Amino acid sequence: MARVRAAVGTVLGLLSLGVSPAVAQTPISVGYSTLHVLERNGYDLPVGLLITAGGDSNRIVSPLLEVGINYSAESRQTLQIVTAQGGVRVVPYSGTRVRPFGQVMGGVIGAQCCGEMAMRFAVEPGGGVEFPLTRRLSAQVIAGFPLVIAEGFSTRLIRISAGVSFVPW
């Protein structure tokens, strides 16, 4: 839980440092996420939090920062997966209130279990749909497909998230 508070504080702190009006209009998304490892004995990490800064759906291309944590407690062992990534979101003009988008991110992924931690590089293509509720608030559904890259192997994951996106200022 301390890591989640630290992640939220870091994202909000970085946003508050900006002096540009463009930074003040940066959307922040918070959502519940679930993650599944797509290997033959894959793990489910059903509890998670995904926090995103950026990804303005009113622009065709916009930068994106994301921090996520998922965990599962199985047989007295807790498995945690933490991600910190950056990338771009592309929102094609749809002419409707529902706004589909695609995104590509890259960064680090860490897995912790049984007192050990491993950090690797990850690339995550994905996409989703945003449903505007008010001028500053939207509902979002996002699917991402992280690919963990390490020496001699790779691991495929799928992460589904549902939440809200808002412009705080």
Give structural notes.
By secondary structure, the chain is mainly beta. The chain has one domain (2-166): Porin (Beta Barrel). The chain is built from two helices and ten strands; from the N terminus they run ααββββββββββ. The protein has helices at 2-17, 21-24; strands at 28-37, 44-45, 47-54, 61-74, 77-90, 99-113, 116-132, 137-144, 147-150, 153-166. Strands 1, 2, 3, 4, 5, 6, 7, 8, 9 and 10 form a ten-stranded antiparallel sheet that branches. It is elongated.
Which features does this protein show?
single chain; 169 residues; mainly beta; Porin; 10-stranded antiparallel beta sheet; 2 helices; 10 strands; 63% strand
At the first level of CATH, what is the class?
Mainly Beta
Number of helices: 2
Number of domains: 1
Average pLDDT metric = 85
What's the Cα radius of gyration?
A: 16 Å
The helix/strand series, from N terminus to C terminus, equals: HHEEEEEEEEEE
Strand content: over 45%
